[in-house]
Amino acid sequence: MNKTVSEAIEYRRSVRIFKDQDLDTEKVKECLVNASLAPNSSNLQTWEFLHITDKKTIKSLAKACFNQNAAKTANQLVVFVVRQDLWKKRAQSNVDFLNSVFDKQNEKNTEKRRSAALKYYKVAIPTMYTNFFGILGLFRYMFFNIVGLFRPIFRQVRYSDMRIVSHKSTALAAQNFILSMAEIGYDTCAMEGSDTTRVKKILKLPSSVEINMIVGCGVRHEKGIYTERYRIPFDQVYKEV
What we know:
alpha+beta; single chain
């Protein structure tokens, strides 16, 4: 029986050593479908999921991950890639989708709603994501902060801010994947430690993309969890306002 969300969260641990046991590739792929349903900024979905099942590639990536046990013993790997470079393509996909939705509607304010929605993807998104050596981001930052003296306004408008936004969205997708794996009794370990330049070279990725994390996948070995789970006492991190 599959676990509930709470059970999956409780079950999930960062497993450092996996058994020499094959995973069902299709089940892992289904967990990645769940990853694609994660909330993300402006529905741009500036992510890509590379599902690594080839043993030779896993071995090469393990070296790029400093031969961590979680990579060396993994049956499969998933590389979560930030594709901020695809923002134009993803924005156009949203435009096409919204047009198809509004074309089916025949309400009094349909065209008004269409205009507002499309303006977001045709004007607001290009304003936020267009970059020219960081210069446009600096001008946006100065302008938006001046406007912010008079009314509430979004201030995270520099190129570096938009990078963070894309990384947050991709991390949310990774969390969906990790919990989906836990739900079906598969184990994972999210790794940030890697030589990302070598990772991109191994996977033949453009130099402009960024690696969010690499997730080792397998079935936990009895020695795979190094210690009991530790968390800061909840009353130190929780505040009701």
